[in-house]
Amino acid sequence: MKLLKNKKIILIILFTLWFLAISFYLGKTLFLSSYAETLFRNEIVENIPAGEIVKGFKIEQPIYLPEEIENEDICISILMATYRRRNESQVEVSLEQKGHKNRIILYTKYIDDNSYQKICFSNDNYEPGPAFIKITGIDGSRGNAITVWLTKDTPHGEAIINGVPQEYSLVFKIGKSIGNLWNQPGEIKYALIVFMTTFIILMAALTLFYIKENNLK
Amino acid sequence: MLNAKLPETYKIPKVIWIIALCFFIKTLILAFWITPLWDIPDEYAHYAYIEDIAKGKGIPVLGKSLISEEIVDSINPNSKESPPKMNWIAQHPPAYHLIGAVPLKIAELFTEDKYWLFRVPRIISSLSGAIALIIFYLIFKEVTNSNFFSIAAVATISFIPMFSQMSSGTNHDITVTLFSALAILYWFRFLKSESYKNALLMSMWLSIACFTKITALIIAIPMLVISFFYIKGKYKNRIGKWFLCGGITGILPGYWMTRNFILFGNPLIDATYFAKASGITTKINILNYLQNQQVIEQTFRNFIALIGWQGTGKGEVLLFQVSGLYLLIYSLFLLILVLGSFFWYIKFSYKHINGKGKYALIFSVIFLLSSYFLIFSSKNYPIYRQFLYSLLFAIFPFIILSFENKIAKEDKLMIYSLWPILIFLISYILKLKELYEISGILRAVHGRYWFPLIPLLVIAFIFPFFKLLNSYITEKRNYKKTLFIITFFIIVLIISSMEICFYASEVIPFYLKMS
User: Which region, left, alpha or beta, applies to residue A124 given φ > 0 means left and ψ of -120 to 50 means alpha?
Assistant: First the structure.
């Protein structure tokens, strides 16, 4: 109770903790988070879910790798849904071209409902041109599996679910890896630093005000 | 020294100047280096309007005035399909665009570079946003008499991503917010002091606000009606004074409506007139409309953030809304604040149970249950937001307390704030329903339309919670008080931090087409 009476110290500690946390978060976003530049995306038109991706469930989606990818890593973002629940299962996502295949195991526990999941594949042997995304359920069961959204916008071709061609395609984006935000050309990163600075000054001024303010009318 | 002579509620503390200055710098940075050109709703059409005035072409005429080729080309030089060239923004009155033409005209003296010329009218929104924050402070101080609450509220508003976003673009929504805020400030000063000078100032600002965007008339009407009961004098004198206020309010919008009547035969013409002429309208029941369409949900999300327009998409509309963790945090904080306010209203009505309080309580429960079960519970968004919207609806019946005589004036001001909100809500829903009937899709659910009501929303839906908590703190220098300050401080820190994190992690990657 004695400590609680010392508002000044508590507010300074809180401000310092907040400052460290926000600096860490913004630093991580600026310097450590890797991004992809979107080169292709299809639209969401009359979308339907593909069904639960349970063990053995397979979706194949033809795609076309654009030339702009060059030698950068290929990032595919797929619109997924969780049926508004937490699903603890695994899904394999692979990128295949002319017998060459890279695969990634996706743990579904932390996937957000109706969000694009970005999966980046190292570009060891891919060429511009036709390829396939394959999604395979590893251990999902009914009530504990995610799904993907399908759309009528099918410029890269229609999806094949468990061997049956559909009139729909996955909702997806194709991009190339471009590293972190700080690597990007242009003035935007400096503008963002000024933005952050005004924010920190404002919060410091507000903290000082709260330290002085005793009037709670 | 000048401040020393002013009443306590007229003084502006240093921290407010710092908030306004930081906001101005931030939005200028956004305007010139971060927000892509034409990525603010309707931006190039607003710019075309300003350009017409700056070039001496006069005020554009809806249906006739075109957006110049130069602007159309700047959206996407490689596009084969041009965006519509009719300037639909010519439906709006010109106050904002007349002001916007000033920086454009000045900039033309110094540069011919379109990078700067296309962006320079954005300064008006930055400036309007920064001044609006100062006016918001004065409003809050006037009604709440609490520096503590007023400063926290202004700081938090300055970090609403959509408020910053709109303050960085060529669009009249922030300027109309500023003029409406000035009208609201003098309205409250008039209701408090009953000095007629304030009523005249209120009318003047209402007139200017309506001349910026005609929708300000919707909030002007309840403000003028309530003002009637506070004008001093005998019957005839009172009516005369009130008509003078109405007359002043009506001058500028009256001029605009007369112009519209002469040109189109319809004083309230807007761009949908052209859609109506070519399309078929299908009538729909209002309850079905609210049940089937996410009107309130989409408005709420767009109020916090609807980023993008035709800049990033190079002519194609590319937008994204606040979602995920950010939406969760904003919604939960708001739910706590509105729930607290709801309890204050209940407690307050209970105090007046022998008067109008009982009716307020009964109708509030009816509104809570009926809005939840008839409108919100069937929606596919989380239950806490279904409950939040039902609570907002359930607060409106406390408007009945406006007719209760035994209420202190400072409490009455809070209840009066509900009137313009209610009238605006009804008009908003009816207008969107009309658009739905014309186009068959949910359109124009823009949270930014609600910006002129921000001070009233804070006073009616959030301040009562502060009052409720404050009522439990009576002694000075006790731990409860420190705990209260600290809790409030943490809320402000978290809510304020949302914006910069949202910009760094989602908005800027969106502008750079990164995912």
Answer: alpha
